[in-house]
Amino acid sequence: MPVISVLWGLGLLTAVALSLLWNGTMAYSLTHNDLESAEITAALEAGVNRAVAGLLDARPDQRWRADGVPQSFEFGGVYMKVSIEDELGKIDLNQADVALMVSLLQSAGLVLRSAGDLADKIADWRTATPLKHLNGAKDQDYRMAGITYRPRNGPFQSVAELLLVMDMTPVLFRRIEPALTVYSGHQFVDARVAPREVLRALPGLTPDSVEAQLDARTRQLPPADRSAGDGLSSLRGRAFTIRIAFEKSNKTIKQEAAIRLTEDLDQPYWLLSWRRL
């Protein structure tokens, strides 16, 4: 019996020791993960703040570009690429006319008839009136198609909402997503800062001229052209997409933020969206 008691005691002590060791390992792992997560968050926030500061730099020759060409930035030993896109260079889902949407859909591979039908459905999604476009779709059409939800009959709240429009496919959405926004508030786009997907949809531009225009952006531009000719006052109230990429612990971190510049020096921008890519 004494031997059994001793063995039982040793077994109990071993179990306790293993439990403490496991708990300690888990605590270390959780602490390490929390610390790494905090470092990543700090770097991402620094990247956004640096981009905003670059946009608002009073020195034209130092002002950061807003046409998607990446800038280099270092924070706390983290070296990142930061790019800014002016939302005025994108097609606003809530403002663009049907003709521009048709052109965008054609540039993504749809034939004219299919592009026209889908553009009508997009317009009907965002329109409050019960009347529909010639080849559009309203509540009854969604019901008859067996779709459990109905059109918003109001403005798109996000670009991703476009996936809910009747006949929109994930493949087509991925092709046109880079060209779209819900933040510009303008019917037309600024070709000087537009991405490739938008330029291909604009009338009068050939594939060769699109590539030539994009190539010109990657080369060093004269200081006066670095902000597409806009003064600081014209940037207030405008929306921008900021993308950040860097390596951390053998992982590639990619983040996207949509912001709108304000007139408030204490809060120079509002965060509109924040998502990991």
Describe it.
Helix content is about 40%, strand content about 15%. It has about 280 residues and is an alpha+beta fold. The protein has two domains: about 50-90 and about 190-275, no CATH class; about 95-170, EpsJ-like (Ribonucleotide Reductase Protein R1, domain 1, Orthogonal Bundle), CATH 1.10.40.60. The strands form two sheets. The protein has a five-stranded antiparallel β-sheet, with helices on one face. A hairpin with a 2-residue loop joins strand 5 (about 240-250) and strand 6 (about 250-260). The radius of gyration is 26 Å and the shape is globular. Mean pLDDT is about 85; it is low at about 220-230.
Distance between the termini: 64 Å
Task: Name the structural class.
Answer: alpha+beta
Instruction: Quote the beta fraction.
Output: 15-25%
Q: What's the tally of helices?
A: 8
Domain module count: 2
Return residue spans where pLDDT drops below 50 for at least 5 consecutive residues. 222-229
Number of strands: 7
The average pLDDT score comes to: 87
| Biggest pleated sheet | 5 strands, antiparallel
Shape: globular
**Order of helices and strands, N to C?**
HEEEHHHHEHHHEEE
Q: Helical residue percent?
A: 40-55%
Whole-number radius of gyration?
26 Å
Strand order of the largest sheet: 1-2-5-6-7
How do the strands and helices of this protein lay out in sequence?
Elements: H1 2-55, E1 71-75, E2 78-86, E3 91-92, H2 98-107, H3 112-126, H4 139-144, H5 170-176, E4 180-181, H6 196-199, H7 207-218, H8 232-235, E5 239-248, E6 251-261, E7 269-276
Parallel strand pairs: 3-4
Antiparallel strand pairs: 1-2, 2-5, 5-6, 6-7
